[in-house]
Amino acid sequence: MLAVLANRTYRHLFLAQIIALIGTGLATVALGLLAYDIAGGDAGAVLGTALAIKMIAYVGVAPIAGAFVNKVPRRALLVAMDVIRAAVALCLPFVTQVWEVYVLIFVLQSASAAFTPTFQATIPDVLPEERDYTRALSLSRLAYDMESLTSPILAAALLTVISFHWLFAGTAIGFVASALLVVSTTLPRAKPVEDAGGIYDKTTRGTRIYLKTPRLRGLLALTLAAAAASAMVIVNTVVIVRGLGLSQRDVALTMAAFGAGSITAALTLPRILDRVADRTVMLIAAALLTLTLATMALLTVTMGRADSYWYMLIAGWIVMGLAYSASVTPAGRLLRRSANADDRPALFAAQFALSHVCWLIAYPLVGQLGARVGMAAAFGAMAAIAAVGTLAAVRLWPANDPDVVAHDHGDLSADDPHLKEHERGDHAFVIDKRHPDWPKA
User: How far apart are CA 391 and CA 395, in angstroms?
Assistant: First the structure.
């Protein structure tokens, strides 16, 4: 898996991702504690709303970024977004009102909505071989998981000597370091794409391709299950742990348990995906998420105030981390198979936006349920949503889904660029207006 790091460009991008993620992880812990500091017992509702605003930014900005990413230099765009995120992180320690948190989160996540799909769409161009790209996906998942594990532990250590407000400074440092690493790379130039249609056509092209592809409709359903589990962890961990009378450090350690499970899955997935179909792995993982959420709902009802409940919570977070990672890591492979290089940025942006609609549903719902009804209700509702996503994926994603979709070229001329992709040997799945699956505008 580490062999792909021999590629200098990818190595620098991967390091930039790791450093930025650690900074983001520190901000996640600090934001939860900031919400608790401002709102007390209503912290779950405040944090749920803040994360819903984050999702609104993702859903609104990502398709626009995906439509125009080929119009600007990728490196300049990535660096600019890192600088904006660093500036916002430096402002967060000084907020005293809930509305100020909401405004800054919107600006920060709008920058992330432009950065992340562009970054993701660049990696397949840096590593064109699917075997290398699969390893890169697992490394990327591993980076997310290491962040989930190390950032809370680092935060727990730092919180013994500093106030949580200083954690935002670590976030800013992470974004600045990420920008410097991106500057040190030479990224492949995006292929110029002929303009076809107006702004509506450009901004919806990726979404129309996405929703017309059966495997990607299944991916979206599985993302709903993953969002239900991760929303419960991110929004309500601080409320549950602090409600048990435990410390800020215990909050960080509990979140680290989710990362420990996730990193275990990331380390084993490359070998598993070499032998087992993506669909099988992802469906089993989503079913496990559903079962774990339902089990935690039952345990919360029966022993929610018991001394041993925290240990049950940690065990549940470990299992959900493992299943979450297994359910989302193969997504990049599916996206790569489902579009040519020209459409890839738009498709990655569509995945980024559509998948975050799932979190837009889950974040405020789980926060409000936890604050107003109780944690057992929050666990139960997320289990129901995860079950719906899993069952929908079974129906939407054909069991005999081929890597290459057969289609008829009809009367294409010999010099058509669609046919030239076959001659180059890099054509796996191309949708154009002659294709029967082309989404109707």
Answer: 7
